[in-house]
Amino acid sequence: MSNFFVFVVALAVSLLFSACRREEANEQSRQKWSTQHSVDFNQELSVRENLKINTFLAHYTHLKMQQTPSGLRYMIYQKGSISEPLAREGQQALVRLKVGLLDGTTCYQTKPEEIERITIAHSEKESGVHEALQFMRKGDCAKLILPSYLGHGLLGDRSKIPPQSILYIDIQLIELQ
Prior knowledge:
Layout: H1 2-31, H2 35-59, E1 66-67, E2 73-78, E3 92-101, E4 106-109, E5 116-119, H3 127-133, E6 141-146, E7 167-176
Antiparallel strand pairs: 1-2, 2-6, 3-4, 3-5, 3-7, 6-7
């Protein structure tokens, strides 16, 4: 019985020390996270999202989207009056939106009888939407694809949009004020 007791105590001490060493290793790895790690992570995420977007667009060949330097993809599929000026930063845009994911899930949608008001570049809407509006005129309808960094980022919206989600948006610019 005493050999068994010694074995159990030795095992317990061994497990305790190994657990402490694992905690120290975890703490050291947490301390080693740097700005460069963040940059690398974001670059890798951007590459993966770009691959997903390109795969989506290869499947839906009717979507002839333009890409901006920020990574926004947009296609104006219904044009308003060409005599109307392009939307500008600071203007109020009255819009209808359908916000979804690339898999077809609808996250948010403006009701047909409602209109959403966005102050371009000055409201809390996704930054990719603000950028896209500045390519649009009153009466235009567009489809947008926003990488997560132009949408809700790493965390999502903590409601209907999951973390790191690429957004697929249909937007109608009804009026500019």
